[in-house]
Amino acid sequence: MNKQNVRTLSLILCMFSYLLLESETERSRRRILELERTEMKYRFFEDDYREIERVVLVSAVFCIGYGHAAPGTNSGKGFCMFYAVLGIPLTPVMFQSLGERMNTFVRYLLRSA
């Protein structure tokens, strides 16, 4: 094999190993830098993000199915699927229970009249 080819392959191998080893560190540094930039630029801190996340979560839970809004993240989609899997079967059970209670109340009114 040519000396130039060996050198090129070794450089490529070193480059990929460096990228694999340092990718997580680079991501964490980039995230910290972006947070600092956002805090400096907008005076918006991580606690503010947490508060907004809570508001969005509560509004998504109570307004699910309204309009054409859909979550964009995988975790948000998973939560909505879990919420729907529990909510859809429990809705008829709730309506049946409500109907039985209304029926009992109407029977009571008819007997007392």
- List the domain count as a whole number: 2
Terminus-to-terminus distance: 104 Å
Low-confidence stretches: none
Number of helices: 3
> Percentage of helical residues?
over 70%
Share of residues in strands: under 5%
Backbone CA Rg:
29 Å
Mean pLDDT: 84
Which structural class do you get from the secondary structure elements? Answer: mainly alpha
What are the secondary-structure elements, in order, as H or E? HHH
What gross morphology would you assign?
Answer: elongated
Number of strands: 0
Descriptive overview:
The chain is mainly α and 113 residues long. The protein folds into two domains: 1-41; 45-113, no CATH class. The chain has three helices and no strands. The termini are far apart.
Summarize this structure briefly.
Helices cover 85% and strands 0% of the residues.
Features:
mainly alpha, 113 residues, 3 helices, 0% strand, single chain, 2 domains
Please write out the topology.
Blueprint: H1 3-42, H2 46-62, H3 74-112
